[in-house]
Amino acid sequence: LKLHGGLSPHLGQAWVRSLPISLCSGGSGSGGATGCRAASRMDLDAFAQQWGLDDSAQTALAQIAPDLQQRVLSDFAPKPGTRDVNRLLFGFIRSIGGAGGG
User: Fold this and answer.
1) In angstroms, rounded to a whole number, what is the distance separating the alpha carbons of residues 24 and 58?
2) How would you classify residue 40: left for phi > 0, otherwise alpha for psi between -120 and 50, otherwise beta?
3) Whether 5 contacts 83, CB under 8 Å
4) Of 62, 67, 71, whose CA–CA distance to 44 is shortest?
5) Phi and psi (nearest 5°) for 27?
6) CB 3.0-4.6 Å disulfide test: which of 26, 53, 72, 86 passes with 48?
7) Closest CA to 7 of 76, 86, 81, 91
8) HSE on the CB side for 55, CA within 13 Å?
9) Is the pTM of this model over 0.85?
């Protein structure tokens, strides 16, 4: 099934490139980046199938930093009946990644 309102794959890729590369590496202070690894292909595929993500949303998810992937997989939960899960996912990624805001 394909959901209405899908974004252009080119738009999605350009938008994803604007996100921080990784919040796992670098940084200072204690704690650091323990447990920060990319989600497996199987996890990403299952997540995409669960929510009916289109190609641009799947590409966006695959290209974000590992810590953001993990957060999306654990925290993204659209309400039943959400019409445009793909658009909601882009907004969620933006909100947790700190992109935009101006």
Assistant:
1) 21
2) beta
3) yes
4) 62
5) 80, 170
6) 53
7) 86
8) 5
9) no
Q: Percentages helix, strand, coil for the chain, rounded to the nearest 5?
A: 50, 0, 50
Q: Evaluate whether 85 touches 77 at the Cβ level (below 8 Å).
A: no
Q: How many other C-beta atoms can be found within 10 angstroms of the C-beta atom of residue 58?
A: 20
Distance CA 95, CA 60 (A): 14
- Residues 63-73 have pLDDT tens digits of 999 999 999 99
Q: Are 66 and 22 in contact (CB under 8 A)?
A: yes
Tokens 């921080």 found at: 20
**Six-digit token string for 99:** 């992109």
- Token look-up 């289109």 returns 54
Output the six-digit token pair for 10.
């080119």
Residue for token pair 């650091």:
32
> What average pLDDT does the chain have?
73
* CB proximity list for 84: less than 8 A, separation 6 or greater: 3, 4, 5
